Inverse folding.
């Protein structure tokens, strides 16, 4: 599972329009564009997957799971405050204070063409980050394909939770006009764990649709409109004391792209975007809740990004301007038992505005055929304003209503190929501003450690110093790659028990305030290998290890223990078989202070078979498989509240391409 | 053919656009208008209006109170004395409120007997802390002023209404020292989810031997502001669902230069709150009040101090 990037990149929509350059790069791009046109988000095991399942196939990503839906991706074992998740570079912020809606929950696998994951400061193109960036790439059909109409339909059924999914997408590729559309609906009931026990409140319903229309305004320029509309309803979160009643997202953008035939500037891409997210929780289906509480949240973002690609001989560069403004609002309204009495109200996000503007630059220079140097940097200005700052003053009297932060970032890496070996080393330095919850959150209940969290507007920037290295070997049959990275993070933001205040939420045991540790360190290691046993039989293996420590050598929470994946893939003509084993070792370095307990090891065995055939011009593919064949009862280190994961799950799916 | 296909695509676009609009417009929970909601619960009254006008011997006396009404609890009063529309500043006004119950027994309440004169605004100012609403018992104000070496005496019945704003509640009690005390909230009228400067008046009845004097004898009905006491505060939400929730960074009330007691109460959310008090005298001895549990006890109504005032906003 190498780098899961299917680059449709900047030449994508205009691949036919551009003058074909002789350099090997542009040919490379063209080929990839043609390939990626038919390529779908899928793993070897399963073709009908959710975005989360797809992301989990990257060794950099792990997940905090609060149920069967909307997993929170951890990049380099760091949570979403430290990473940057964007859709085509657009910033989107979830509207849920309890992270029930990571950005990845608002897209669907059939409107994406790939996911671009960058580790550490190398991911600073779209803004400031510590852990790196995850950019979800929209589908983007090129102009003037020989086959004008393309479509695909996928349907699947999973037996464990009776998940039915129907996904359809089409594209039209004219000489002047391109239209991409997709529509998807998934519905699942409660899943059953390895003891065949139903996990209540794990159902979900999700509708997603997207539309992209591009118009070629001249031979070398185009205008494109994109929209995604996503609705999730009646989504259970078994690990939380409440569910999701409704969340909706509208994600829109208009972009103008211009290519240049001559000169150092190759492409200029400018986009304005708007997205609005609303999120309404529902606690009425939980009898354990004595208090009914409404917890709606809204997040609205406007933004602009403008990118120039430069290339001259062995030098290439991208320069990007990012600007956005987000308004995050979250309310809580508690209802007394005696409903005739006054309700109780407070803001958990007191109308917090985040404005950001920054300029990023990444340069790469091919020193020789075998070596390359990448140097990049960014400088951003981050401004926060809390409209109802009096909420923040309760715990932090006199805290400023507005705060401006300067967020610099630098990174450099050098890579070298010697025969069949490759090496790279790199380093980075970067700041990030506290998130809305960390800075301005107010009594946000965390059901993992059962504390109410209070933000601190006076938090310092988190500062990361990072080194990374990788080495690999590649020949005709074997490909091995080892990567390590190490982060030293100053002013590491984390919740600490406050001696003052008392809990507000019914199930809470105390109040924690976000504070900065002097520092924390994180180490990630991954080893990846694939080996071609025969021309149609492949083996793939992954081993990852991570360690996170605070300044007193205590363990950080949500650090993945030693884990592995090994899989075999056999392909004979139209017939494919895949089987895999994956698991974690026992989590020994857990953090009781942050609500963790020891998690046992587990092994999961999966297998699937697929068969592809054609019918007239229609290509069909059938797949049957099973996950967790041994019906192991397990929960992972990052399963919120130790909720058990899904037991044996047989899945079937059919994919039609026309 | 190609053209038809484009128009197909456009049609689909239209359908999808309609679908978007439909799904966006379907109803959900509305965003709370926080400021408007606080106005609904608590009406802040800042305007002094005429409550009573008395004409006597060519003198006109106008008594103003907030909203033009008297309420149980703390009332600031402003008196204007004039003759032929000319303000008189040397009237030496005194005010004595008297409550008469159905048995004909008389009592009073904390008040400022000798009014002060505000020379810039041309009125006499003082306060009365009514301890009961008018019902079977009734209130009278006994006003004296002197002019041209003559003392004018006025007797005026007034109506004391229920205080609709719980943030201006009061309590009266007998302390461990056997004295009668009254605590009345004065500010904030309209609290916020924030740090609120809490102002209260603390008064004590000046006991005196009963003696035969002409009614009404101010010495029999004398109250004073207590000095150098401390009013310790522990605000909590009494609602069972709130599990005895409290707030941080509160400050006990101590006496300011204006004679009133000033402190800070933090309200963490809107709703019903109880201000649990312990009143300490100048020597640090408890006059009244009990410590309340600081435990978080979801599902159980919060215990209240024997000395407390409920608020709501």
């Amino acid at each position: 599972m190498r780098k899961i990037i299917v680059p449709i990149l900047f030449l994508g929509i205009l691949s036919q329009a551009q003058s074909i350059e002789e350099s090997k790069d542009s040919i490379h791009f063209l080929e990839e564009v043609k390939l990626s046109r038919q390529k779908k988000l899928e793993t070897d095991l399963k073709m009908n997957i959710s975005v989360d399942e797809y992301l989990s196939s990257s060794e950099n990503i792990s997940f905090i799971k609060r149920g069967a839906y909307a997993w929170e991706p951890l990049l380099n074992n760091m949570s979403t405050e430290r990473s940057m998740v964007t859709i085509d570079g657009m910033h989107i912020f979830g509207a849920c204070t309890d992270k029930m809606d990571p950005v990845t929950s608002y897209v669907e696998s059939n409107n994406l063409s790939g996911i671009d994951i960058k580790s550490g400061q190398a991911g600073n193109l779209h803004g400031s980050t510590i852990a790196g960036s995850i950019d979800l790439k929209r589908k983007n059909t090129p102009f003037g394909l020989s086959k004008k109409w393309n479509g695909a339909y996928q349907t699947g059924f999973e037996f464990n939770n009776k998940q039915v999914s129907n996904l359809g997408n089409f594209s039209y590729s004219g000489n002047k006009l391109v239209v991409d559309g997709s529509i998807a609906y998934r519905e699942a009931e409660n899943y059953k764990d390895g003891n065949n026990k139903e996990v209540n409140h794990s159902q979900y319903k999700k509708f997603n649709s997207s539309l992209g229309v591009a118009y070629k305004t001249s031979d070398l320029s185009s205008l494109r409109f994109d929209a995604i509309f996503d609705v999730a309803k009646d989504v259970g979160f078994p690990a939380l004391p409440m569910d999701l009643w409704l969340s909706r997202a509208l994600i829109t953008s208009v972009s103008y792209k211009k290519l240049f035939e001559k000169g150092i500037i190759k492409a200029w891409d400018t986009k304005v975007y708007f997205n609005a997210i609303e999120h309404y929780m529902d606690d009425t289906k939980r009898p354990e809740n004595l208090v009914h509480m409404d917890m709606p949240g809204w997040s609205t973002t406007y933004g602009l990004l403008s990118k120039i690609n430069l290339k001259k001989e062995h030098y290439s560069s991208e320069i990007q301007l990012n600007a956005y403004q987000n308004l995050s609002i979250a309310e809580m309204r508690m209802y007394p038992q005696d409903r005739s009495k006054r309700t109780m109200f407070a803001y958990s996000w007191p109308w917090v505005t985040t404005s950001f503007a920054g300029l990023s630059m990444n340069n790469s220079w091919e020193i020789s055929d075998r070596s390359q140097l990448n140097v990049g940097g960014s400088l951003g200005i981050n401004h926060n304003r809390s409209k109802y700052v009096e909420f923040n003053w309760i715990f932090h009297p006199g805290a400023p209503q507005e705060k401006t932060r300067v967020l610099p970032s630098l990174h450099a890496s050098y890579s070298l190929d010697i025969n069949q070996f490759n090496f790279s080393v790199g380093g980075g330095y970067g700041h990030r501003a506290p998130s809305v919850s960390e800075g301005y959150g107010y009594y946000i209940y965390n059901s993992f450690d059962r504390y109410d969290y209070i933000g601190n507007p006076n938090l310092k920037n988190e500062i990361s110093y990072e080194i990374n290295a990788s080495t690999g070997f590649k020949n005709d049959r074997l490909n091995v790659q080892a990567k390590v990275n190490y982060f030293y993070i100053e002013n590491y933001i984390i919740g600490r028990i406050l001696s003052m205040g008392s809990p507000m939420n019914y199930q809470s045991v105390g109040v924690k305030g976000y504070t900065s540790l002097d520092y924390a360190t994180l180490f990630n290691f991954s080893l990846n290998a694939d080996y071609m046993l025969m021309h149609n039989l492949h083996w793939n293996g992954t081993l990852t290890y991570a360690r996170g420590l605070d300044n007193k050598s205590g363990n950080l929470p949500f650090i993945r223990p030693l884990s592995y994946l090994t899989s075999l893939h056999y392909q004979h003509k139209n017939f494919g078989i895949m089987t895999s084993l994956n698991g974690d070792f026992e989590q020994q370095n857990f953090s009781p202070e942050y609500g963790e307990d020891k998690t046992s090891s587990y092994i999961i065995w999966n297998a699937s078979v697929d068969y592809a055939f054609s019918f007239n011009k229609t290509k069909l593919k059938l797949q049957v498989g099973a996950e967790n064949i041994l019906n192991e009862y397990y929960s992972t280190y990052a399963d919120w509240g130790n909720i058990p994961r899904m037991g044996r799950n047989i899945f079937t799916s059919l994919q039609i391409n026309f | 053919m190609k053209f038809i296909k484009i128009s197909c695509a456009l049609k689909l676009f239209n359908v999808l656009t309609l679908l978007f609009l439909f799904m966006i417009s379907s109803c959900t929970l509305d965003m709370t208008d926080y400021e408007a909601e606080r106005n609904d619960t608590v009406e802040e009254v800042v305007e002094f209006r005429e409550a009573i006008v008395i004409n006597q011997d060519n003198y006109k006396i106008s008594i103003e109170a907030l909203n033009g009404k008297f309420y149980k609890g703390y009332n600031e009063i402003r008196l204007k004395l004039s003759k032929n529309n000319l303000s008189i500043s040397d009237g030496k006004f005194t005010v004595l409120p008297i409550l008469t119950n159905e048995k004909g027994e008389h009592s009073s309440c904390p008040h400022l007997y000798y009014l002060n004169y505000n020379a810039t605004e041309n009125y006499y100012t003082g306060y009365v802390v009514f301890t009961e609403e008018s019902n079977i018992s009734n209130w009278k104000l006994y006003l004296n002023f002197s002019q041209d070496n003559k003392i004018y005496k006025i007797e005026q019945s007034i109506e004391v209404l229920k205080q609709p704003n719980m943030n201006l509640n009061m309590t009266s009690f007998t302390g461990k020292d056997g004295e009668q005390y009254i605590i009345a909230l004065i500010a904030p009228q309209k609290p916020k989810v924030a740090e609120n400067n809490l102002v209260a008046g603390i008064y004590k009845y000046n006991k005196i031997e009963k003696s035969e004097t002409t009614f009404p004898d101010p010495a029999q009905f004398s109250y004073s502001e207590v000095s150098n006491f401390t009013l310790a505060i522990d605000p909590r939400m009494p609602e069972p669902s709130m599990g005895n929730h409290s707030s941080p960074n509160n400050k006990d009330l101590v006496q300011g230069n204006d004679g009133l007691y000033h402190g800070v109460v933090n309200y963490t959310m809107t709703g019903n709150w109880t201000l649990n008090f312990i009143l300490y005298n100048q020597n640090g001895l408890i006059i009244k009040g009990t410590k309340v549990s600081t435990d978080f006890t979801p599902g159980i109504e919060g215990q209240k101090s024997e000395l407390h005032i409920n608020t709501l906003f």
Observations:
- Chain B touches chain A at residues 2, 5-6, 9, 12-13, 16, 19-20, 23-24, 28-29, 31-32, 34, 37, 41, 192-195, 237, 239-249, 266, 268-272, 294, 296, 298-299, 312 (CB under 8 Å).
